[in-house]
Amino acid sequence: MDILTGEDALLAFIDRHFPNLLGIGGPARGDDCAALAGPGALLVSTDLFLEDVHFRTGYFLPEEIGHKALAVNISDIAAMGGKPLHFSMGLGLPHNMPPQFFTNLSSGMALLAEEYGMFLSGGDLSASERLLLSITITGTYWPEAAGTPPCFLKRAAARPGDAIFCFGSIGLARTGLALLESRGRAAIEESPAACAAHLKPSPLVNAGRCLALAARASGEAERFGLMDVSDGLARDLPRLIGPGKGAAIDGNHLPIHGEAKSRAGALGLDPIQEALLGGEDYALAGTCPASHMERLNSALPGMAWIGTVTDRPGLLVDGTPAREPGFDHFCRANV
To answer: Is the pTM higher than 0.85?
Structure first.
């Protein structure tokens, strides 16, 4: 079986998929640093994507690995109401990786980058026992905001009495993960939406844009908060709301997909509890003054009101304290 040999061969594969677009005065890649033209205020975020921690090659296609590695970074930009610009990538590659695997991985990532007009600015390569991707992404505010102060939606903007809202399904990726772990890719036929949510999530960039523009139009942009749900709503809500405050959630208003409800019912599980624990949904959760909810509903149809910010720390679900937090990489219960 052919394998990839040599750093120059790897770089040639990368150049085949990602055009070396111009930065400031020359190519963006190939020098000691990339020289990038930026419109002003920039967003920067980094995520790791590690084999057998974030994905398994047993049921992920290589193109899905490439897609998701970039998608989770784009979601971070979307979660601040930003526009993705470009990204750099660190790759740790096993010695026995076939060229076709790397080609398909790059192709899946390149298609998503093209969708958002992004380009690869550079990165680093290393041999590794397992496949590892580390991506650093940059973004900015949308052109509609040009000439005005940037409107980035941050965490911890909430005050007691503010509304809590969500856009996107909660708990669906958790369902997909469980099915793929137990049945492999055969689970896709039974639960296509749940499996797609885990294998190939769609970052909600346009939703983040709509929310940022609605926040700016409200005249109280600093009162709007937003984040993406990556570790489960139960763990992420306290991060969104900020210290000294809590949340009262109405479980009947959580956007739970039918496939997630069906699996929970079949296993005798509480679908609301499962949804709260579900990570990697990359849905958007936010807060705003309750008086602006009508404006947000108009800007983003399909957005769901799910609860209210309280003046006491803790998460209440239908009046009862939440039983468990969401996912934590360093919690022994998750190991």
So the answer is: yes
One pLDDT digit (tens) per residue for the chain, 335 residues: 455 556 567 667 777 777 666 554 455 566 566 666 666 778 889 999 999 999 999 999 999 999 999 999 999 999 999 999 999 999 999 988 898 999 999 999 999 999 999 989 889 999 999 999 999 999 988 876 555 667 789 889 999 999 999 999 999 999 999 999 999 999 999 999 999 999 999 999 999 999 998 998 888 989 999 999 999 999 999 999 999 999 999 999 999 999 999 999 999 999 999 999 988 999 999 999 999 999 898 889 999 999 999 999 999 999 999 876 655 554 544 43
Domains of the chain: 7-23+37-145 (3.30.1330.10), 163-334 (3.90.650.10)
| Helix (H) or strand (E) run with residue 306 in it | strand 304-310
| CA–CA gap between residue 150 and residue 250 (Å, rounded) | 33
Distance separating alpha carbons of residues 271 and 169, to the nearest angstrom: 12
